[in-house]
Amino acid sequence: MVKKAYSVETKLVCIEMKKAGKSNEVIKETLGIKNDSQIYTWMTWYKKEELHRLHQPVGKQYTYGKGMWQLSEVEQLLEFKFWGTFLKIIIKH
């Protein structure tokens, strides 16, 4: 069995769809997600404000001070603001 890698964009769209009240079945069908547990995991990270975890590769756990989180706090905020705007545009269309 091959693990499926989802892009950060897919994960963020999934979160926005769930926030908009879409069912897991609709989200899975629309985005090609295989399992409900993946949606629950991403939503848990969102609720805990751990969005940096969306960037971690398949099968890798977050290690403090490694990877994308090496960006300055300002750079991280700008990136999340960009993706938030991007998602709002996608959800509207």
Automatic annotation (TrEMBL):
Organism domain of life: Bacteria
Classification via InterPro entries: Homeodomain-like_sf
Protein source organism: Streptococcus pluranimalium
Lineage per the UniProt record: Bacteria, Bacillati, Bacillota, Bacilli, Lactobacillales
The name this protein goes by in its record: Transposase
